[in-house]
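Ticket opened by: R.M.
Priority: normal
Category: complex prediction / small molecule

The reporter submitted a protein together with uridine-diphosphate-N-acetylglucosamine and asked that the result be attached to this ticket for the collaborator who will pick it up next week. Submitted input follows.
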Amino acid sequence: MKLMTVTGARPNFMKAAPLYWAAEQAGVDLQLIHTGQHYDPGMSQVFFDELDLPKPHRHLEVGSGTHAQVTSRCLERLETVFMEERPDWVLVVGDVNSTVAGALAAVKLGIPTAHIEAGLRSFDRQMPEEINRIVTDAVSDVLFVTEPSGVTNLVNEGRSKEIIHLVGNVMIDTMFRYLHLARARKMQKQLDLPQKYAVLTLHRPSNVDREKDLDELISHLAWAQERLPIVFPIHPRTRAVLNQHNRVGNLEKLPNFYITGPMGYLDFLSLMLDSRVVLTDSGGIQEETTALGIPCITLRDNTERPITCEQGGNKLAGARGTKLADALNPILMGKAPKTDRPELWDGRAAERIIQILLQSRS
Ligand code: UD1
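Result attached by the on-call engineer:
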């Protein structure tokens, strides 16, 4: 059996890695395709180096552009690869532009296609990822789901229960495998950070693209850093937008605000592990903090990962940070909410996926 996994952007690599390891263990040939949606070494190569991944079988070098440009370049180049290679299955992960392109290219060639991390819905169609999720789930042949809400959403959209499998979370597989190496990085010491600090990540257009909203968010972050120092590894897109609005200086002036470049997987995990709280607009980080029992404050109005809130540790504070103080105050008072690790987030999701694909043959 020959499997191909499409990757392209930073959050794909840690989701594809456990599929590769599980396939290898089961003696199945799995080839990685890198579309090249992310190309900066710090957004791409560092993950291949750290996650024991081989060089991608094919690199398609699509680069950046508008959504249509990136998606269509991926679509065209992936179709060529699939026609040449004729895999038995194409696996697509997550919700980025490379994901939707991979699913569309494969199903139109009649190649069985599986979506990993299916069924998540924010019900906010202004998010490009929501459109990618809906389209990918509508066309894929098998849907692997991380949390019960995903099953409900897919059934509500008319997908058959037989093709939906609740298997757990491949991103958490990777995290558990590398926890010990991440701990050894001791980023708090390396960056000379205070004992108590918060980590911040921001990259979504809804948080950073509109100047007025961005200023409101910055004012809430300015309040927060007076109470708990904040470390901000900045995404290149966010840096570009902040520069364009001349806001990097405003942040750098804040006395307890530390800006760094984007970090590799192990360094970032190390930074999270020693933090008091993570402030983020990322989907994956909401899940990682939930699995680790670290409080998370999500700077968005909604989440497609409701289990992270239901388990207790994740609070929504709004894209402009209007509820940041409400969410942060209990943590500052040492009353951080408790969180439970969701069922099946046990480090074995990829093994289950490979087993189900193998059984589908017999
Ligand atoms: C993409 C995903 C998003 C994911 C995020 C993680 C889509 C629709 N969005 O968003 O779901 O959470 O990745 O990072 O697929 N850039 C660089 N270097 C790079 C890559 C990008 O500087 O290696 C800059 C470029 O200016 C580019 C911009 O970032 O135009 C946006 O990149 P893009 O891949 O379109 O989206 P992300 O914001 O990274």
